[in-house]
Every structure is written in C-alpha cells, then in structure tokens.
Amino acid sequence: MQKHIFIALTGASGSMYGLRLAEQLCLNGFQVTFSASCSGTIVCREETGLDLSGDLDKALQRLHEHLEIDSGIRLVHPDDLFCGAASGSSAPDALVVCPCSMGTLARIAAGTSGNLIERCADVMLKERRPLLLVPRETPLSDIHLENMLKLSRAGARIIPAMPAFYGRPESVLDLVDFVVGKILDQLGIENDLYKRWGTE
User: Fold this and answer.
1) Is the pTM of this model over 0.90?
2) For position 200, what pLDDT does the model report?
C-alpha cells in the first residue's frame, strides 16, 4: 500500500528543506499532502520565490513547476479542517513539519489544534504515528527547549536542521540534502542523499 506523508511548511527559515523533502517523496512514489501556514507561505516566497498563496489549483501548479514534478502531491489550505488528516480515522502515515517554527512547536506542545497542521500533529500523537519536527531557530531559549523535550517525551521526533560537514559539502543543496536524508532515515525510507560516516 502506498504510504501517505503529510508535509507542513511553517514560518521558520528553511523552506527549501520541506520542498526538497516533498520532491524526494514524490519521486519515490509516495502520496504527499502538502500545506503551508500563512507565515510559512510568506517565508517560502521570500526564500525561494515560490508563491503558495491564492487559488489552490494555481498554487499547486506553481508547486509542480518548482519541484519539476507533475503528480503525487496534493496541496491543502492550513485551515481546512475537513481534510482527512484532521481525523484519526483518516490520518496520514506520518507528519513532517519542515521547517517547524517555534510558534508552531509551542502550539503543538500545548495541544491547541488551531489549524490543520496543529490538528494533524495532535492526531499523530494520539494515534501514536510518526510526528517529525524540524525546528530551525538559533539561539534556543529555555521555553523552546522545554517544548521540544515535552514533545519528545510525547513521542515526537525532533530533527533540528543542523547539516554536518564531514561529507565536505560543495553546495547549498548538499547541506539541504544532509537534513532531508536524515528525515527520510527517520521515516524508514532508504536514500543516498548524503555521505554516511565511515563510507568511501
């Protein structure tokens, strides 16, 4: 059965991580649902030039063009609580919030479920399904760290956007791929996006 992965892009810097992850999942035959929060939409436009605002069909067409794919991904509005991902009866196999802003992380930790992204995260925790959070912030305050610890103890996996340099990256894409490769590892998806320690 085809795995269904929900990718949520929120208002932290690092939109390219979420976009590259979506691309890799689509290319490997996964069903992808993609959503960007209002802040995530703004940051994505500033960082990559990709505009996910406005009419969903037109935004999906721009997303297809940006990722250079023509199928496999569904774009949903962050306030669409009628989306299947909002219910445990129709939950995706995993949710990756990438990048995850500190505001989104705090609201997930508090269980407020104010939009589809936060509600889907709540569903992942209650259904004991994989919830992967990719925070991108520095420095981290005590509140940030406490929220991450709370979520880790609740079952979420915290994967900070921290690229390594032992593979001698030669481009920004190499740095992005290290993080995306680590996310795929946590999803149990084989990949060769980065050089693994101890390999030639």
Assistant:
1) yes
2) 72
